[in-house]
Amino acid sequence: MGIKVAKFGGSSLASAEQFRKVKEILLLDADRRIVVPSAPGKRCSTDIKVTDLFYECNRLAAAGKDIAPAFDRIRERYHGIADELGLTADLDAHLEEVHKNIQLGAGADYAASRGEYLNGILLADYMGWDFVDPQTGIFFDEEGRLDSAKTQDVLGAILREHTHAVVPGFYGCDSHGNVKTFSRGGSDITGAIVARAANADLYENWTDVSGCLMADPRIVRNPEPIAHVTYRELRELSYMGASVLHEDAIFPVRIAGIPTNIRNTNDPTAPGTVIGYEAEERDSKYTITGIAGHKNFAIINVEKAMMNAELGFGRRLLQAIEEQGISFEHMPSGIDTMCVVVHEDALEGKKERLVQRIHELCQPDSVEIHSGLALIATVGRGMVRSKGTSARIFNALTRAGVNIRLIDQGSSELNIIVGVDNLDFEVATRAIYREFVTKEEPRW
Ligand code: ASP
Q1: Is 185 in the pocket of ligand 1 (CB under 6 A)?
Q2: Does some domain include residue 338?
């Protein structure tokens, strides 16, 4: 028998109705033996996430105010689920304890973590599975970083003792034994850590969308979902702005070689997106896997005649940038020019000093900074095998009347980046999508 770790997001566990869907999904596959729940999320767009209600209670407690009225809303949410499902767990006793501790000043991390903790208790009761508190198995070091080695050992041993377990997401134990949470949305990270510790065959991340999309749906109408993507491609796409899983939720499963499957609780028959290594050998449906990008970059353009013959020019230029505490994104260069692309915000209040240092260190002929640049990455493992991908991108942009201000293609042939005016960002994204998806025949 294999092991699948299934993490369910807040909207998947926001109500009794959603709990029923989750149970059905879990029982459909005997390998789904470990579940990582989030706290109840929004039931509709105007609803408030339980985690936010907990943060509010903590704020009131810290200000010396009575949290009872705010806590009543939390009570209602959990009772709404437990009563409708006829659960027998002693919810009131747990709620009382949590209420008391927050009022007494247990702190923000403790308060926020109780969203997942209480939902985990309810889900364990509903499934008839064991409850495993991550405070006993997920550890942070003195600097507040995840202690991977200790977590792997202890959590791995705990999970081996349970055939079926519910491990709440979002928190663990700090070096003093207190509750510590991950950053917001951190249940995804817990899911990946648990999958690694359980040595799972698959990490399923159940949410309210049917996987990753090939482009931003706010720009491209109804973009196609991505069936298979490699961890490397996903990194390129998310770095360039695609909203997918948090880096920390990828790392534990990526290094353990465990694939991740993003699925939709509200459409469980949709296959979702599989992120894995094996996708590398798989033919993708299209030449490209996805398009991502964002606006507001600046180019620092440095020119100097005979630059190419000067040893250490690039190092001195990057030194000037580093001295200002600015990190750079790309560095396309010509014979006598060097461009460094940085985030516009990073230059705020530093421009003059930076230009002055570049002059002092590099003695260039000119230094110019142009802002208002958008970067668009076209990512695809299929590019290595197909000729003319960049030509197709450039033609599509030309036809759309978009001026390309910068081109950058890494030697991995996984990603072609073009820089265009902020104003052309949406038109350019749509033009590339049309060229490779709408127009292209799927290559099954
Ligand atoms: N409940 C936490 C949050 O709202 C963590 C999560 O849902 O992943 O951020």
Answers
A1: yes
A2: yes
